[in-house]
Hints:
Two copies of one chain form a homodimer.
Chain A: E1 2-12, H1 16-19, H2 22-35, E2 40-47, E3 53-59, E4 62-69, E5 74-81, H3 88-98, E6 103-113, H4 114-124
Antiparallel strand pairs in A: 1-5, 1-6, 2-3, 3-4, 4-5
Helix pairs in contact in A: 2-3
Amino acid sequence: xxxxxxxxxxxxxxxxxxxxxxxxxxxxxxxxxxxxxxxxxxxxxxxxxxxxxxxxxxxxxxxxxxxxxxxxxxxxxxxxxxxxxxxxxxxxxxxxxxxxxxxxxxxxxxxxxxxxxxxxxxxxx
Amino acid sequence: xxxxxxxxxxxxxxxxxxxxxxxxxxxxxxxxxxxxxxxxxxxxxxxxxxxxxxxxxxxxxxxxxxxxxxxxxxxxxxxxxxxxxxxxxxxxxxxxxxxxxxxxxxxxxxxxxxxxxxxxxxxxx
Lengths: 125, 125
């Protein structure tokens, strides 16, 4: 059992113009959180000079972060949630379509082992 | 070769009061970015009711994100940077000391394979 679930998504072959527009990227991120019912607390979006966008949405369930490299048609996205009930797969399919990605890769990891937490608490007693 | 480098840090056995105070957490995050010379673009910090803090610092080099579970004395931190020149190890030692963590675990992954990017570009021609 773990406290956090993290999915790291690589979107290759995306539309360069879409992923270099911070208004489009922010709109898509907020549509995404709405689609998979994540509760937005706050968001930050930034366009780099000369190229690229970074955005983070802090959600009640942790965060969604995006970084785009338009010059490489590449987008990195992280979903960090505090339980497994969210349909991240549906979210990834949505992003693939919206950014017109050709190839998607995902990695999943867990965060905060409850076994380790319990072991350290026992040791402290 | 890759576009991004991500280090995921688990801090176990932290001081519960420190990691439940959003002002302390934000101060430590900003000291951290200063220490390892990351350039801050914007930051978001949020205290959850009844307990826990989430914070994200968007940096020129990508982001640093933190989530705390005071009830479990646990903190999750992510460093996402666009090159390997930053001394993340020094940053982790700083966080371990500041949050009084007893145990630290780290995982490192790469993001955005330049081989895959090149292969997709060739296919498109």
